[in-house]
Design a protein that fits this description.
about 425 residues, alpha/beta, 2 domains, seven-stranded mixed β-sheet, four-stranded mixed β-sheet, binds 2-acetamido-2-deoxy-beta-D-glucopyranose, signal-anchor, Trichome birefringence-like N-terminal domain-containing protein, transmembrane helix
Length: about 425
């Protein structure tokens, strides 16, 4: 039934956009209505189960709805009853905006993402647990992937309380929902590739002879130990990396630069972080493809936007908005040509798309929908010296990322 509805919306949409040259809005509306009505009529003829293959072959020809294009709609009923609340113990204190009394903590979850051509419904946790019995799901990446992992955990915990807490194959944290034997785990890794501090030691070394004294050695072809076994354990993987590649406070280009190694040897001449990122993405995606079992579903999540305004995180930047941004504000903040504070958002994505094009990873594109949500960060309620305009309040936006993840997972499973 959902497919039928999608099909309607799609047709109605393309018709009405196709007709924008027409001077009369009324006639567009009428046309859309007529078309919708006739499609309803047509499909009601196909309701008998024996005819459903006909419908499937029809639906295969259409391009699937693009979940990334849409808008946020204020809908006070949307999270009632809530998926979970501030008592979920996995919520990191700094992200628990309800407990820390952020003024708009309850407003954040009243916005619903409406893709232009379809709906993105809140996923049904009980149906999900049933469907993915005996399945292992691994989140591999930085704290933003943990933010998403916690949202999924809290949503599932609410409907299935019996859990075993453990750490499968190097995970930072993991849980099995015992009634369904479904395991979810978070593997912490900042760069995906292994890295550690590097000090000049060998006076004949190549980096030493170029004058390098200290920095971080990044092995572009070696996965971090925290997740190296994850591809053989999990049935579904969600990877991310991005924030740490644009973190000059840690990887200071002069005082503590990233020094890239391949096959155990330093790359000389040294390459810049954005070249290093391309190499890491290429090596890590092919590592996962080689190591994972056949049938493993691979996702790569796109970059999560930050919303620092009035300076970067360490320059007094803040995010005090109480409502999502308007489209033109999104462009001001994120357009590459403006080179503003949070410009890394779309830059990272350029690298990701380039690397993923020739891979078997599915892209989980959360960037654009999240760019609107300047209102959904912990901000001053994060309890830190600086405002947190990078992570997301829970409950909050990453709940919707999980809706998207699960909707896309269904598409993949239907195809295979
Ligand atoms: C979906 O829309 C976004 C934003 O317009 C675009 O960048 C992306 O390429 C589209 N994705 C697909 C699969 O067409
Ligand atoms: C939030 O408000 C409640 C009730 O007013 C109060 O008990 C609690 O200490 C506040 N929490 C924080 C972190 O300010
Ligand atoms: C639980 O699921 C895992 C696979 O994810 C499987 O290896 C194991 O046999 C399952 N356990 C039971 C009791 O079914
Ligand atoms: C963007 O701005 C930064 C400083 O904020 C500057 O260092 C960099 O060169 C700029 N990049 C471009 C492409 O203009």
């Amino acid at each position: 039934m959902a497919g039928v509805r999608d099909h309607h919306t799609k047709r109605t949409y393309s018709l009405s956009t196709g007709a924008t040259h027409s001077s009369s809005r009324t006639s567009i509306l009428l046309l859309s209505l007529l078309c919708t009505a006739s499609l309803y009529l047509a499909f009601s003829l196909f309701k008998s189960p024996s005819l459903s293959p006909t419908f499937h072959s029809l639906s295969d020809n259409r391009t699937p709805c693009n979940y990334s294009e849409g808008k946020w709609i204020y809908d006070p009923t949307v999270r009632s009853p809530p998926r979970y609340d501030s008592t979920c113990k996995e919520i990191f204190k700094g992200w628990n905006c309800i407990a820390s009394n952020k003024s708009n903590a309850f407003e954040i979850i009243k916005w619903r993402w409406k893709p232009n051509e379809c709906d993105l419904p809140q996923f049904d946790p009980v149906a999900f647990l049933r469907l993915y019995r005996n399945t292992n799901i691994g989140f591999v990446g930085d704290s933003l992937n943990r933010n998403m992992f916690v949202s999924l955990f809290c949503t599932l915990k609410r409907v299935s309380g019996e859990v075993r807490k453990w750490r499968p194959v190097g995970a930072d944290r993991g849980f099995t929902f015992l009634q369904y034997n479904l395991t979810i785990a978070y593997h912490r890794t900042n760069l995906l590739a292994r890295y550690g501090s590097w000090l000049a030691s060998d006076s004949n070394g190549k980096l030493e002879s170029l004058g390098y004294k200290e920095g971080y050695r990044v092995d572009v072809d070696v996965p971090d130990g925290t997740w190296a076994e994850a591809p053989t354990f999990h049935d579904i993987l969600i990877l991310n990396t991005g924030h740490w590649w644009w973190a000059p406070s840690k990887f200071d280009p002069v005082k503590s630069p990233m020094l890239f190694f391949e096959k155990g040897l330093p790359l000389v001449p040294p390459v810049s972080p954005d070249v290093g990122l391309d190499m890491v993405l290429r090596h890590m995606t092919s590592f996962v493809e080689r190591k994972s079992r056949p049938g493993t579903v691979l996702f790569f999540r796109t970059q999560s936007p930050r919303h620092f305004e009035g300076g970067d995180w360490d320059q007094g930047g803040s995010c005090q908005r109480l409502q999502p941004l308007m489209p033109q504000q999104v462009e001001e903040l994120f357009a590459l040509k403006n080179n503003a504070t949070n410009v890394e958002t779309r830059l990272v994505n350029q690298h990701l798309y380039k690397a993923l094009k020739s891979s078997t990873f599915h892209v989980l594109d959360i960037t654009h929908m999240s760019e609107y949500r300047a209102d959904a960060h912990p901000s001053t309620s994060g309890g830190k010296k600086h405002d947190d305009c990078m992570h997301w309040c829970l409950p909050g936006l990453t709940d919707v990322w999980n809706d998207l993840f699960i909707a896309q997972l269904k598409r993949v499973k239907v195809k295979s």
